[in-house]
Automatic annotation (TrEMBL):
CDD domains: TM_PBP2 (cd06261). The chain crosses the membrane at residues 12-32, 73-97, 109-132, 138-159, 242-263. This is ABC transmembrane type-1 domain-containing protein. Belongs to the binding-protein-dependent transport system permease family.
Length: 278
């Protein structure tokens, strides 16, 4: 018994050591980016490099922010992200409720086709989408950035799986009280799905914040650029100024990191609760 306990304890220690080393390995690039962003240009090119800057050059952030119109890029990205996320909440909740709780002909087949669409790579529908938006006159507008991404199949799938775990007795009681489907969704289903909704929101925020290819294609003017396209143009202009490049990369990444620290508990709860129950 003692030998078995010791082996199990040693195994846990080894697992924790491996996880700690993996975490350090994953954090190392981010640490190096932040460290480089606080160095001078000469120190950034120094070999062997310093792990910690000799003098912390916080003005690199101010200078990088002034090089291009990052304030406009941030505003465009925030508008796109918030609008798309809110629309995904609405469309995904309605679709997921229908697939989870409503019985209609071809429901399973339609849901299977929805999932199959996730297998189609983005480049396949870039040209048709651009042609449609061009004919609608939406190119280089917020409509082109927001409307095509107002639905998300993975969000529908995630919410549908969670909705199926809610006890049927709650729906029966709600129907006895005279609630219709929209009232049931609003008053019962969504309040019980906060953790999953937070996860859907985080996925949408991260996806839209890091979106590069689509904004690059459907926007032409500098005033409509998002943060990632603006960062790409900035990287071309300052390709050899590594401290400024790292400073710009840092302050475009920090909002997502800060957001994650606020909602990580809800994300873990959604994974523990939702699962993939049929």
């Amino acid at each position: 018994m003692t030998s078995s306990f010791q082996r199990g304890r040693h195994a846990k220690i080894l697992i924790h050591i491996a996880l700690i080393l993996g975490a350090i390995w994953m954090l190392l690039p981010f640490f190096w980016m932040v460290s480089t962003s606080l160095k001078t240009q000469m120190e950034a090119l120094k070999f062997p490099p310093n792990i910690v800057p000799e003098v912390f050059e916080f003005m690199n952030y101010v200078e990088a922010f002034k090089q291009v119109d990052f304030s406009r890029y941030f505003l465009n990205t925030i508008i796109m992200t918030i609008s798309t996320t809110l629309l995904v909440f609405v469309t995904s909740s309605l679709a997921a409720y229908a697939f989870a709780r409503l019985k209609f002909y071809g429901r399973e087949l339609l849901f299977t086709l929805f999932l199959a669409m996730m297998m189609i790579p983005i480049p396949v529908y870039l040209v048709p989408s651009y042609v449609i938006l061009s004919r609608l006159g939406w190119i280089d507008t917020f409509l082109a950035l927001i409307i095509p991404w107002s639905t998300n199949i993975f969000s529908i799938f995630l919410l549908r799986q969670h909705f199926k775990t809610i006890p049927q007795e709650l729906f029966d009681a709600a129907k006895i009280d005279g609630l219709n489907h929209l009232q049931i969704l609003k008053n019962i289903v969504l309040p019980l799905s906060k953790a999953v909704l937070v996860t859907v929101g985080i996925f949408q925020i991260v996806t839209n914040w890091n979106s590069f290819l689509w904004p690059l294609i459907v926007t032409h003017s500098d005033s409509m650029r998002t943060i990632q396209t603006g960062l790409a143009y900035f990287a071309q202009a300052e390709s050899t100024n590594y401290p400024l490049l790292c400073a710009a990369s840092t302050f475009t990444t920090m909002p997502l990191i800060i957001l994650y620290f606020f909602v990580q508990k809800q994300i873990m709860e959604s994974y523990a609760r939702a699962g993939l129950k049929e």
